[in-house]
Amino acid sequence: MLLDLHLPGYDGLALLNELYRQHSRARIILISGADRRVLKSASEFGRSRGLSIAGALEKPFAVEALEALLSGLAEQEIPRDLPAEGGGPTGELSCSDLAAAIADGDLFLRYQPKLVLGREGRPDRIAGVEALVRWRHPRHGEVPPARFIGLAEQSGLTGGLTDTVFRAAAGQAAQWQAEGLRLQVAVNLSQALLGDTTLPDPLARTARDEGVAPGRITLEVTESAVSRDAVAATEVLTRFRLNGFGLSIDDFDTGHSSLVELYKMPFNELKIDRTFVSQVEQQEEARVIVRTLVRMAHELGLRTVGEGVETKAMLDFLRDCGCDEVQGYAVSRPVLPEAVAGIVARQGPGQAAVSPAG
């Protein structure tokens, strides 16, 4: 849907709030004749509300520009099982339902392949995946994590959920390894666990019990989670690195406090947030930020991963910036584990298409 931020007698942001209250799943294109920074901030506001902001156009715009944007959206296959950016409401989901799902094995993992961008004549290759948990619900079908992670954190179920996800991911990594696929597997770590200094050793034992070295697993942590209690987080993350795990900082901001945390914490990878990646085709500011993040990360000895890469143009830009890896629909949507081997065999982004049944 097209949404003009300057509606007669109505505030466009108020309409975005109303769409949020109605749990709208529509893909929204914002238009405005104001400064492009207004469009940018309105887009970020919409995404922070969990709305799917598909693009933005400055008025006046050519019909061809709108057609190109619509055409690009039509070419992007958006699976029904994935949430809009930022997630959505929990609906009828309950703590008791989630506890039962963890106990009964109703949670399962999909894996989104990550493409290592070739350098100096070397080809691109799939060398890793990110594990993404799903809930197979009897009434709601396949429920994405954005709808129940908060529920787990509120109800004290984070530990059980993490153990379930981590054990499944480690076991799958070991199975792929036995089949000749040495893939790095990324697992998201809840912010509720970053104060638990006893966690690293048991997770390392679980990995080894499942048959995979901790070094084959990268734990992804959000920057906001780290900043909540930096002292405790520093101890926990350092213990993870001492156990051999990789550490990736996700949702990284560019403010002073974020740079301080990045400097102090033992991360070896930085994920460039989709907020920036999604705008590199339209906004010079986004391109500057992405280039700067890649250069800064490399100078600090960190690998870089660009997430939310949905078009070839985004992928090409990240390649030109020197980004190490990318993930997103331009590479593959999240798939069941049995589909990963075929994607690895096909390698490059133009050949990594996945059928809707993935």
TrEMBL record:
Gene3D superfamilies: 3.40.50.2300, EAL domain (3.20.20.450). SMART domains: EAL (SM00052). Signal peptide: none annotated. Residues 91-348 form the EAL domain. InterPro entries: CheY-like_superfamily, Cyclic-di-GMP_PDE-like, EAL_dom, EAL_sf, Sig_transdc_resp-reg_receiver. SUPFAM superfamilies: CheY-like, EAL domain-like. Residues 1-74 form the Response regulatory domain. The keyword Thylakoid does not apply. Keywords: Phosphoprotein. Pfam families: EAL. Coiled coil: none annotated. The modification 4-aspartylphosphate is found at residue 4. This is EAL domain-containing protein. The lineage of its organism: Bacteria, Pseudomonadati, Pseudomonadota, Alphaproteobacteria, Rhodospirillales.
